[in-house]
């Protein structure tokens, strides 16, 4: 009795704090004001921009991250350990620092000023910032997902005459799909909430590079608490949806051979 | 038995920590400071510590951001924004115990390295293809001033079409123009003064804008109003104003 009660206290503190944060955000606005703020042009713009840029970033992250992850999981080559560490850097790098680095890389003094001038301070720049962060998440999680697939299946497919790309597409990818999907959800969540890198690379221009987190920041700065809270709640709703998705991906036990739940939710 | 001893030890420790924090609080001030004022204020905080032993912790950011932070937390000793606009807002919140206007926070048009040929006057900002950077009008002091300037210039429409980016703090904006990522930006005269020889500076006609003054407000929330007032007086002293001047902020005319 004593022991469990003692452990229950910290658990209660953690749970109540989280519930308190959610409650405080929800209780901030009267319903009428919330509705007005949710339907404000600025909120809708931010919602649309966030949806478009985060999906585009996820597309880039999957297109680049999946092949990279497959190579990291299935091939040996010199310098791999070093490369493995390098690929993790964006995961541990503060987003603001990543943004500063991207700004210097793409800026007029960087190696590609012409391309940079097209990307900087534009919605395309937002996509670059988000993709930088979410690609690392895809690489990390998909590598773990590929590694968790028994190599025997690939070997069997090969011995039955399947070409390498067929082994990848028809055997390895479907078997790792669930872990990859869980990683993709994580990567999308990171892209949706990204703020620091966006601020440096794309700037804080209202109704141009104003993603949901940017809208929260700008409107807190200007005392428009309504729009800030509305955008915060939209981000929260998206985050809760993703939690549900992660649960579903982790909980389905339909395939018997890949029993791993959401594979490799690395240091996200 | 051992538990009792432990509890006692913890209790003593807690008491001691509490005592220490109150002692420390008496000698530690929290100041909200507009990001553009950082260089002189950092130097002055150091001078003040040497002179009095009182440490000042400064929280730097866009003035609007800081105002929102204060409105939410209602803690802190001093507020030093880029313009009196924000201390007027503080007065509406009935949070100002004492206000001193310090320095002029004047805007200039700064032109990026290598663009001085293309942009020689304010009117050149309206040329197609010129990339202009401004501050967000509500998030930072000079963002508001810049809007007035554009309106008065008679070419607001054309120039606004060339605005490629808005920044949340004047420091972010200065970084963009220094690196040439925008061709020109309206920044503080002080920013330009702190980067001599890098930017070319075009003066802005004084009748295009209301001169902005950076003030220091002692907050009613201060637990140590005497120490806070001491710091405010230190900033407004001749030595304090000379430091501001060194970083390109001329003293405000005596009211």
Automatic annotation (TrEMBL), chain B:
Write out the similarity annotation: Belongs to the bacterial solute-binding protein ModA family.
Q: Where does molybdate bind?
A: 63, 170
Name-wise, this protein is: Binding protein HI_1525
Alphabetic keyword roster: Metal-binding, Molybdenum, Plasmid, Signal
What does UniProt give as the signal peptide span? Answer: 1-19
Source species taxonomy: Bacteria, Pseudomonadati, Pseudomonadota, Alphaproteobacteria, Rhodospirillales
Q: Keyword Metal-binding, does the record have it?
A: yes
Q: Which organism is it from?
A: Azospirillum baldaniorum
Which domain of life does the protein's organism represent?
Bacteria
In its UniProt record, a GO molecular function of this protein is: metal ion binding
One Gene Ontology cellular component term attached to this UniProt record is: outer membrane-bounded periplasmic space
């Amino acid at each position: 009795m004593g022991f469990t009660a003692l452990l229950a206290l910290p658990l209660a503190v953690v749970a109540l704090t989280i519930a308190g944060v959610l409650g405080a955000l929800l209780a901030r606005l009267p319903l009428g004001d919330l509705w007005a703020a949710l339907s404000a042009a600025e909120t809708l713009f931010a919602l649309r921009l966030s949806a478009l840029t985060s999906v585009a970033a996820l597309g880039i992250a999957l297109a680049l991250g999946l092949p990279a992850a497959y190579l990291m999981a299935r091939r040996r080559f010199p310098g791999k350990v070093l490369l493995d560490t390098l690929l993790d850097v964006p995961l541990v790098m503060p987003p603001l620092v990543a943004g500063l680095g991207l700004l210097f890389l793409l800026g007029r003094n960087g190696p590609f000023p012409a391309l940079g001038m097209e990307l900087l301070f534009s919605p395309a720049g937002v996509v670059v910032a988000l993709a930088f962060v979410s690609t690392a998440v895809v690489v990390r999680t998909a590598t773990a997902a590929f590694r968790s697939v028994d190599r025997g299946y690939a070997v069997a497919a090969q011995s039955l005459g399947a070409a390498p790309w067929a082994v990848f597409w028809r055997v390895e990818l479907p078997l790792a799909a669930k872990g990859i999907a869980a990683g993709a959800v994580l990567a999308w969540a990171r892209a949706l909430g990204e703020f620091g890198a966006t601020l440096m690379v794309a700037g804080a221009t209202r109704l141009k590079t104003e993603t949901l987190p940017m809208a929260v920041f700008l409107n807190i700065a200007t005392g428009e608490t309504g729009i800030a809270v509305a955008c915060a709640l939209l981000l929260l709703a998206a985050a809760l949806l993703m939690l549900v998705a992660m649960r579903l991906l982790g909980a389905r036990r339909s395939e018997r051979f890949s029993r791993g739940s959401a594979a490799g939710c690395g240091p996200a | 038995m051992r538990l009792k001893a432990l509890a006692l030890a913890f209790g003593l420790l807690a008491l001691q920590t509490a005592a220490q924090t109150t002692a420390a609080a008496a000698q530690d001030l929290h100041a909200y400071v507009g990001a553009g004022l950082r260089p002189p204020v950092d130097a002055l905080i150091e001078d003040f510590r040497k002179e009095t032993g009182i440490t000042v912790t400064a929280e730097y950011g866009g003035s609007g951001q800081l105002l929102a932070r204060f409105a939410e937390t209602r803690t802190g000793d001093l507020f030093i924004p880029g313009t009196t606009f924000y201390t007027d807002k503080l007065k509406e919140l009935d949070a100002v115990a004492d206000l001193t206007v310090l320095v002029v926070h004047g805007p200039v048009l700064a032109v990026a390295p290598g663009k001085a040929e293309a942009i020689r006057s304010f009117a050149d900002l309206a040329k197609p293809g010129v990339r202009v950077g401004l501050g967000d009008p509500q998030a930072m002091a000079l963002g508001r001033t810049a809007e007035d300037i554009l309106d008065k210039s008679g070419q607001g429409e054309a120039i606004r079409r060339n605005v490629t980016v808005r920044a949340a703090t004047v420091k972010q904006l200065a970084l963009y123009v220094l690196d040439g990522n925008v061709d020109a930006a309206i920044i503080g005269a002080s920013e330009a003064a702190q980067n001599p020889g890098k930017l070319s500076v075009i003066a802005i006609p004084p009748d295009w804008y209301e001169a902005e003054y950076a003030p220091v407000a002692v907050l009613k929330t201060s637990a140590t109003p005497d120490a806070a007032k001491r710091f405010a007086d230190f900033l407004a002293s001749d030595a304090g104003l000379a430091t501001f001047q060194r970083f390109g902020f001329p003293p405000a005319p005596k009211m």
